[in-house]
Amino acid sequence: MTTIDYRELFIDGAWQRPATSDLIEVRSPTSEATIGSVPAASTADIDRAVGAARRAFDDPKGWATWHPKQRAEVLERFATELENRAGETARRVTIQNGMPIWLAEQFEGGFPPILLRYFATMMLDAPEIDERAGMLGGTALVTRQPIGVVAAVVPWNVPQAISFLKLAPALAAGCTVVIKPAEETVLDAFLMAEASAAAGLPAGVLNVVPGGREIGAYLVEHPAIDKVSFTGSTAAGRTIAETCGRLLRPVTLELGGKSAAILLDDVDLDASMESLFAVTLLNNGQICWLNTRVLAPQSRYGEVVDAITALASSLKVGDPLEPTTQIGPLVSARQRERVEGYIAKGKSEGARLTTGGKRPAGTDTGWFVEPTVFADLDNNATIAREEIFGPVLTVIPFSDENDALRIANDSEYGLGGSVWSADVSRAAAVAARVKSGTVGVNHYTNDPVAPFGGIKSSGMGRELGPEGLHAFQHLHTVYLPPAG
Ligand code: NAD
């Protein structure tokens, strides 16, 4: 098989030789073979990338000063260039992280151009100046200005969509960006760099520097960065928040989760199974907002356990490039070890394994774990409290609605969640009491129009919606004197 190899980094609008010969090797989670390599950015490369982004931002005639209409034209071309590469983007994500190809086509190939157009249009529709008659006689002219040079640090699980939750609003607002992809998913990031160059994004506006956590930490702390936007683990988020606190640097953090699906006693289980799959086990269980705690009414507990068990055991596990595969491998051997550690913990703490728990038979290579369900546990079990980031669900009983909410809200995290009922308004009333940034009723999707993000250990700040644009702007007020 031919491998995908790059030997240059995309910095300052050009492919440049890296400062060192260090490489990041990418391995297939399915075959475990090497599938590509890219240069590992060093601190010297970060300096160059941030320097380029700084110059591009500070240029008195540069990107930040353009009319939103001019930026929208370039972002439209960027969206088109991404569309031209959508199939290859999806394929690259799938061969790197094991995301089922049909999902990669939607999330990774499909979503980024939608986000670029959405935020570019939002800038066109936004009033340029908000003129406010003052209470003290004068007039206040309030504008939103681009916040500056953005450091974007992203994870491997949904690499392109998460990148564009940051890039689309940042670029539309007039910011310049240095993005650091995770080491596991670099090949899609280099394709994105190619698309940006083909679209004619001005030099320095977007720079791509792959590396590990040390390089990420160096970028976050770099003196020429004005704003940090991070998605990843809660542990890394805390470290980044400390750095940004010390530097008084604005930061947005999208972190981990342990969300709950509350199944009310009138839920239509048969009609809900397809959507329940999408909220519990999508992307092999590697999405931060997944509802990995399924809360079931005591009166229907056995029935729900059976239905979730049947769902998990019916899923097709295998090569994620196969269009009918529902569960692919986990991203890495390390991630599989982590997930298997939690499965062992679930058993040792006395939860009942109803399906899964092993590596699937017939997969000689690949970091696969069977979709796994645990029942007969309460919310204090380790597997009900900690984020596993794999295809492992817990089904926990509750006595009534208040008890369901008590359990759902008894979590260190607060990112997603869902409520399921034959009565949408009843479910919506329960959803309003779930303590998290977002909750779905009888389904869950991150609609671009509405803010997405978490509370508690799930992070701070929001992406998507106008709020997601405002995260890359600061407010500027001019006080005009009273007339006359
Ligand atoms: P991770 O935090 O280890 O890595 C994420 C990214 O941050 C990578 O690019 C990594 O190189 C970088 N990084 C790590 N430590 C850093 C530091 N101290 N300073 C700067 N950069 C650093 O997470 P992971 O294991 O790659 O991803 C899985 C985690 O991400 C899960 O916990 C998951 O819940 C979370 N996640 C959250 C969201 C969300 O939107 N809330 C989305 C996806 C993933």
Please characterize this protein's 3D structure.
With 484 residues, the chain is α/β, with parallel strands linked by helices. It has two domains: 4-255 and 458-478, Aldehyde Dehydrogenase, Chain A, domain 1 (3-Layer(aba) Sandwich); 260-449, 3-Layer(aba) Sandwich (Aldehyde Dehydrogenase, Chain A, domain 2), CATH 3.40.309.10. Helix content is 39%, strand content 20%. It has helices at 43-58, 68-84, 86-97, 101-125, 159-173, 187-198, 213-221, 234-247, 269-280, 301-314, 333-348, 382-385, 401-409, 424-431, 465-470, and strands at 4-5, 9-11, 14-16, 23-27, 34-39, 130-133, 139-146, 149-153, 176-180, 206-208, 227-231, 251-254, 260-263, 293-297, 352-355, 372-375, 392-398, 413-414, 418-420, 440-441, 455-456, 459-460, 473-480. The strands form six sheets. The protein has a seven-stranded mixed beta sheet with strand order 15-16-17-14-13-19-20, sandwiched between helices. Helix 12 links the parallel strand 16 (372-375) and strand 17 (392-398). The longest helix is centred in the first third of the chain and has 25 residues, at 101-125. The radius of gyration is 23 Å and the shape is globular. The N and C termini lie far apart (77 Å). It binds nicotinamide-adenine-dinucleotide. Nicotinamide-adenine-dinucleotide is lined by residues 153-157, 162, 180, 182, 212-213, 216-217, 220, 231-233, 236, 239-240, 254-257, 288, 387, 389, 415, 459.
